[in-house]
Amino acid sequence: MIVQKPSTAIAASLLVVALLATAGASAQIKRTPVLTADVAAPGQHAVVVRGEIDGGVSAPRHTHPGDEISYVLEGEVELLIDGEPPRLVKAGEAFVVPAGKVHGAHNPGSAPLRFLGVYVVDKSKPLATPAK
């Protein structure tokens, strides 16, 4: 396995999603790329991010060009996947969002939500795309 530092393109796409979520607000969503690495599937790679969403803040609806697997480290998140009822995921729990599925998230608490996200995605596409 080849371990790489996060690419500038990945960092930029994460910043775009974070900025969309916080436009006009002092609250924040932070996603810090930790690692990118090739995987066995041709044309795909894994991207690992450390994320934080301030209390009361919502991440905008978006998609990923591959699966998202996330683990909640601290706090809780209301996971909002189109076509599914909202689901509360607490610290110590994990969730999967299938490739291309429109979704968002909301931190219903006052404390920051901290999570670790792993995305197995198409290398040629942005990590996240805002939903229409």
Automatic annotation (TrEMBL):
SUPFAM superfamilies, sorted: RmlC-like cupins (SSF51182)
Keyword Signal: yes
Signal sequence range: 1-27
Database matches in InterPro entries: Cupin_2 (IPR013096), RmlC-like_jellyroll (IPR014710), RmlC_Cupin_sf (IPR011051)
Key words of the record: Signal
Any Pfam family hit: Cupin_2
Protein name: Cupin
Species whose genome carries this gene: Massilia eurypsychrophila
